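Tokens help. One example:
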Amino acid sequence: LGTVPQVSADQPDEELTLHFRGAAAAGAPRVRVAPPAYPAQVFDYAQYLQKTREAYRRAVELARPHGVKIVIEMHCRTSATSPGLAYQIVQGFDPADLGVIPDLGNFSIEGAITPHLAVSVLRDWIDHCHIGGSRRVQSDYDEAGFRRTSHVMCPLAESELPIAAWLKALATLNRPIPLVIEDYTPNVPGRLRLTTSAQQAQRLLKCL
């Protein structure tokens, strides 16, 4: 589907162009470009958003001559972690130039909302979708005696996110939405993870 470099929209023109040229040379139609990192404390979001959108406008202009599209993965701990935040970035851009990748494994950690609302918000900008599972596990207690939780990656069928509802919502778009399996279940061989996830996804798709 494309290339997935560790690059953000605010990096120098030369570095962005290198990735766009490389994708074009490899015949890859898309390049994942992350939003600039946000500060670790409360910050001026309006100012950050303005700079982020300006960075993507520049990146789009650099990518266009190479015939590649920029996509933003809706990854946890980024400023595009949820559909609403991603929309703030992509609104006004042509979906042919800038798209988003809903990531179901990440949504169950951070950014999840009702699937049909998410798809309604990002309708035209949804490029493809990462499907993977994650669930909460009980951890220890903090210094005030409050329970802490963490997340582990898991098979699709064990995810806390309503993956079936997500696929049904995506199906209403009536256009092909490629699904990319991302099963990072720990201590399971990669071949088995892929086989299991593919079988589970096929079962879901038959129920649509």
About this structure: The longest helix spans residues 45-63. The radius of gyration is 18 Å. The helical segments are 13-26, 45-63, 83-90, 104-107, 115-122, 163-171, 190-206.
